[in-house]
Design a protein that fits this description.
By secondary structure, the chain is of the alpha/beta class. The chain contains 16 helices and 16 strands.
Length: about 425
Amino acid sequence: MQKIHYIMLLALIGSVLLKGCNQPEQLIIKGSIGDAKSLIFNNANTNHFAPGEILTYRITANAAGTIYMETDSIKEGYYDFPELNQHFYLRPGMELIFSSTKDGVQLTSHTYMNILSALYSNQSEVDITNAIRSSTFADHCARVDEHYKTHYEVLAKIQDDRLKEIETTRLQMSVLMLKALHASYYSHYDFTPEYLELFKTIKFDKDYYPIFSRWRKWLQSYFRIAARIEGKDIDKDLRMQVEYLHDITIQQAWVWDQTEHPDAYDERNYQNLLLAKQILVDKQQLESIDLTLQKVKKCRKGQPAYNFEFENETGEKVTLASLKGRYVYIDCWGVYCPACFAMMPYLNKLEEQFEHENIAFVSICLSKDEQRWKSLIEKYEIDGVKLLARDAKGINDFYNIRYIPRFILIDKDGAIISSSALRPDDKALPALLKSLL
């Protein structure tokens, strides 16, 4: 839910009054915005790890198009200004002055913020990324350094020490991550000593990392590379990931981000939630974790599976209970899901392999579109038990099916083996099924 703070125009009474209002703990935003009636900004780009609502601030202009606002409710971070299509760094004690020009509203008190916002252009990075496949690692690094040379020139002009430190960190991480991207394009890349030295310079030890809009992307990229270099499942193991984060604030931010909305109610997420209870300290976050844990517990191995009741292609109702005595491998899919269709050939091959075994393959289409469902059954030659979940809310809520395809494995007694099972294209799945049978 979005909460909007309407901050009405405060009249500019005089320079003496202005000086009296300009306390160090206050953020002041003022200036001219021309024909625009108001200036809006929000905290959607900052403090992602903090619970609570997205706050939107509106500064209303007077008839002359001038604005004035002072507040002590702004926390340090980057804030989005949608009307300007930019985001700016704000903190208590700063004074931002805007002016109206022929090119639109500009921030005039800190011109380098305008330059920095323009420099962090996705298109520029896209051009560098597109050239990776035809570049050596050294050439790629040289291209990145050349691209960011102007950024360093801008940073040298910043007189605000705190902002310079934060922007320098952001620049260093952008440079390192763009350089590190080279390895992801080469599955058999030879990690040279130069590359390993670059990798070692990446260290998450500043408590303000989570105010950057790309902090998640940085961490995800870092863990993927770490996994390749060290030969461990770091990119899949939250407990391992925490060990690489050298500041408790970043640990808390990342753990909350990874557990706030689990992608499945499975054993992996159950363990992640237990880890979150050890690391998080915020009361609201911990209460949320406890509620989620209660939902995940019912989907752990050995718990009773959801006893669905859906119709097959002939209109006959089929329940999980009716399949008792057989292992059940469920494919939850949708009629407009290319990723689901991609799994169909692997599922067909798996069914052929276990055709005479005590296992039922059940395809549950989470849709109301019966006609398209039947046409897809024919197109992809779907075999086994084919069901249409006209109302999928029950099964979706029970297993927390947020993404499809989702695969579920159930034992002969109707108990869960895995609520987020291996996919049909996983080479380890046949061996797992054979071990059960």
